[in-house]
User: What shape does this take?
Amino acid sequence: MALVGLVRVSTDKQNTQRQHDALDSICLKVFEEKISGKLAVDDRPTLKAALEYIREDDMLCVQEVDRLGRNLLEGLIVLNDLFERGVAVKVLEGIAAGDHTERSFILDLALALAEDRRRDIVKKTKNGLEAARKQGRVGGRKPVMTDVLVAQAVGLRDRGFTIRQIQPHLRIADGKDKGKNPSVGAISQALRAHDAAKGAPE
Assistant: This one.
């Protein structure tokens, strides 16, 4: 029996070294994928390649079950999908640590706990937004680029300033970032939105 590793991160900026440290020394081969969205097994080329590489009696190996998905719940769902395909999985750390060759009571319990946790987070978020609405506040973070700042940015751009040259001239008026300059990205996004609203070319 051989172990075939899967290393997964959501973005190019995330470091895979910790996962490689855990897998490289014990796995015959390690596949690495960078994927951010919620995708089924058949929509993940690297995971499919790993499954095709696995021979009878081999096991797919991950550091933690959430490496199979974006979070614990998705990881457990993918794990269950792999079972249905006849793929055994070894998880090194975390709530689902162990060798899994079929669905078990412990795995079902972990899946149920993860689902309860997700529902609890959704409920708390919904309750928080509802409380904010009752107090006259809108849910979500207040935009950094207010109408005043956008107007200032447009005026400076019309005078030939680049976005980086505009940035030092703008100051956030309130909130936790009061007195700071908005980011170049925030300014650029606000100007694009302004241009789109005015029907001007980008």
Q: What stands out?
A: The helical segments are 17-23, 45-53, 72-84, 105-134, 147-158, 163-166, 184-198.
